[in-house]
Amino acid sequence: MSQFKYLFFVAGANGKRELCRLDTVEEKIEKSNKTDIFTSLFYYNNEVVTYFQKNSTSKGFRGTMFSPHLVFDIDSSLHQSVELNIIDAIEKQKHLLEDLKSKGIINYRISFSSSKGFHTVIPSEIFGNFEPSSSLPAQLLALAKQITTADFDKSIFSNLRIFRVINTKSSKSGLYKIPITEGLLNYPDKILELAKSPQEASPIKKQEPVKALVRLKERAFDLVPEEHIFSGTYNKKPKNKLCILKLLQGVDTGERNEALCRITSHFKQEGYTPEFAFELILSWNKFNKQQESIEVLKNTFESIWNGGYSYGCFDYLLDSYCDQSCYLYRTKVSKEESQDESEFPIYSILDTQRFYEKFVKEDRRIKLGISEKIDTLIKGMAPQEIGVILGRPTAGKSTLAMHMGYNFVKNYGGCFLYISLEMSLAMMYERQMQIILGQNSDYIEKNYPSFAHDEDLKRFLVSDRTNISVKQIKKAVLDYQDKSGDKIEFIVVDYLHAMKSDGQDERTKINQTVQDLTALAKELDTRLLYLAHVHRTFSKEDSVYLPVKMGDGRDSSTIENSAFYIFAAHLIRDDPNVVMFQLLKNKNGMPFPSGVRLIRENNSLQLKEEKLTINLEDL
Fold first, then answer.
1. Do the Cβ atoms of 114 and 129 come closer than 8 Å?
2. Homologous superfamily of 372-609
3. Which tens digits make up the pLDDT trace of 112-133?
4. What 3-state class would DSSP assign to 297?
């Protein structure tokens, strides 16, 4: 790889990026004061020289590059003092090393980064070396994700990322980036003491290629299309989605925005960093018949990236670009055939009158009992309907759902089932007693032996089983109904993102879980309500006081599409006894996003809707 003889060199915290030859780097470091010295992670050939001379900047370079190493960057997430940061980072670093050893990777160099983490460098020989490629950053990220589940910095896998040079000093912390042994991870104070000066860096021991790791690399790299797909001369690899590759060659103006949505979603599923994915989007834009403005591209990209959107083989646009040589084609066809073979009844609209007549006469719709205003708007929740309560932690989602359960068993027949994947059985009892009695937790703890309970509470069922799937819920419900003879008419799942499901990433798991819950409500002919957190972006410290909006929920598009009703809760900063209860989506009428005020009774969890009174003398 002798042609890859260039890298970027930066001297000083605010120094400019300088393109230089590899054989001059040591001399440059020696001539510097060895403070805030950085070099690029990747090496470059003459392509970068031409680009740099033409543009007077490295920004936007997407040419061929090479790396003789796989590098992991482990950082503390505390943003505290160096002493606290290093303790947090050590736990993550130990997790990484356990995963490396389990894969047979035993030769590497660990360095304390000089401030809040560790760098681990693994020679490429163990993977059978890495071939130069314009997609190498994304390929190495895909490989890293196959190797470990540790929390590492994924943003380093970008074309022009720079790294602090070993045995150079950080002007911010006053410490050096130094090599350390694995044993020192048990002595953070010793690491900080050693980092006050440079330390000897021994070469990393060579390790012969390991067949299993070579295969792992090949599988990981196959997940990432080569960047030459933009030219229209793409290589149809077995694991490339050919519809996406076709879109990447450029589209007509009328398809540009829709194509952007699908390409962005695909890049996120493949594990690209948002920075690298957007660089690819900018390249793709040049191949369209009419280029879109960068501002519009960015807005759409961020919306799709943060929104959890997913597009499958049956999406109308991807279907129109389908290629029979795609590895997914046979699966798609088999699904179509199975759907064709299943019963597909078609009715005249007049024939459906009898179904409506049954619906009206049986009138199985229930009031939720939280707010008269909200109950009037939704016109009652019927079997097979899905509801969601969105909210930030501590906003009162669980309390609202348990109120609904108590209202149900007091006013309707059948059983209510509350499945908590977070609370213990003891905690659920204490909370429910606060709701029923309007007393605080201290009162419940002192007086619970003397409580006389209503017979209706026998139909208020609870479960504290964790890490469960929708399939397990279905089996448990059917078993209970068979044994007891009672029907479970209302189920609450607390909460969605703690459910177990199949899928390569959180987004696909949630997508599948929501689909399964929707199917479960129909199969069991029951009402189903689940709790969901808002997106991490909206979960900052004071955000519990902000009204929730449609789109704030994690995986919001999936949730919005499945739910009949979307409720939300938030608190009032200046009044701890008020919970705002919002109606964001209502399939039976108008929403009520401003919400109603619910008042806590006696500092307990009992909530009552605030009634507005009018003083006639004020009119």
1. no
2. P-loop containing nucleotide triphosphate hydrolases (3.40.50.300)
3. 999 889 999 999 999 999 999 9
4. helix
